[in-house]
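Escalated from tier 1: manganese (II) ion holo job.
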Amino acid sequence: MGNAILYIEDNPDNMMLVKRALEARGYVLLEAFNGIAGVELAEREDVDLILLDINLPDIDGYEVARRVRASKKYALAYTPIIAITANALKGDAEKALSAGCDVYMSKPINIRELWARVEAFVPAPEGRDN
Ligand code: MN
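Tier 2 regenerated the structure:
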């Protein structure tokens, strides 16, 4: 198993935060700043996990998840998807799960929660206990 994580996120501050956090653990981060680019990157590259913002400028994260799951690229049927959204409203988690996401996280992003959720699917290349 590899260590490539695709993050689909339009907010550059969140992108930088997550990039630093995951690279510190030895992961490689692939960046997409809108939904269409994210789906294309998922189909083109070998991706071990997808972090998916729900509020995106083109298609929303739910639609991204549906397209990823419906892809002709077989691996994308089971690649883990962690949904991330600013709206902690009831129903969001259910919507994300029914669109094909495996897990749901709320913003603001907590780095320790992020590490734990990512490591549950993809072991950290430079994992530590801190
Ligand atoms: Mn966003």
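The chain has one domain: 4-73+89-118.
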